Amino acid sequence: MQEPEEKKIARELLETEQAYVSRLHLLDQVFYTELMKEAKAGKMVPEEVVKMIFSNISSIYQFHAEFFLPELRKRMEDWNCNPRIGDVIQKLAPFLKMYGEYVKNFDKAVELITAWSEKSPPFQELIADIQKRKVCANLTLQHHMLEPVQRIPRYELLLKDYVRKLPPESPDREDAEKALEMIFMVAKHSNAAIAEMERLQNLWVVYQRLGLEDDIVDPSNELIKEGPIQKVSTRSNSTSEKYLFLFNNMLLYCVPKVIQVGAEFQVHLRLDVDGMKVRELNDTQFPHTFLVSGKQRSLELQAR
Length: 304
Fold this sequence. Notes:
Elements: H1 5-40, H2 47-54, H3 57-77, H4 86-92, H5 98-119, H6 121-131, H7 141-165, H8 173-209, E1 223-233, E2 238-247, E3 250-256, E4 265-272, E5 277-280, E6 289-293, E7 298-302
Helix pairs in contact: 1-2, 1-3, 1-6, 1-7, 2-5, 4-8, 5-6, 5-7, 5-8, 7-8
InterPro entries: DBL_dom_sf, DH_dom, FYVE_RhoGEF_PH, PH-like_dom_sf, PH_domain, SOS1_NGEF_PH
GO molecular function, one term: guanyl-nucleotide exchange factor activity
Subcellular location: Cytoplasm, Cytoskeleton
């Protein structure tokens, strides 16, 4: 007799979970533990750095190894008299929020590995030594670290498939559908964490281009648009090249630096968006001009 489709998917979930737990074991019990041991001996890298690289991998490993995998195994052993996994996945879903922290930290972790590999040869040697072991399957630490980032989307795909293949009268239908909805919410949650991280990353790059002026650097700002602009001078009847950064709360009127050491621009003026007015001007000599007037002052600008 042919095995039902939904059972095949449940088995695939169990098999990929076993492989995943051994990958987590490698990250937590081998890489993290051995690097930490060396760091504690004060040889090659500060303990703080090792902790920052591995984020909350220990909690993730323990959760999967001690709870989710054993529960899944038990389900598959009892499958013939109790064909269901939906309830177990519902228990899993809330704990997947732990991934938000890991995912948010991922880029920084990879940067730290690169930086410290250059700074500390013993650190690099220990990683290279672990990577040579059979358990690493010729893959780098960074590659193994990507696995938790990819795991939640994998759960989502498998579960979607599982729900699709369930017979309408299956006792697991209600639970499985609810579980899928919960996993979907968590996946969205970790995507939001990534989006927020990218926003901050981009914001930081803009701040560096502006020379990290104290009163401008604020993580809650949002960059809306940036680009070159001509400043119209009515007195000398000419225009000069300037650059604008429009944030949700301020407009920065900048001058490109000729010698770009550190910053690309110098902020000449900061206008609050609050109370700002913009109106088009019908200037025959300078087409596409508009007037920006704020609490601080007014600027006559020309777009391309």
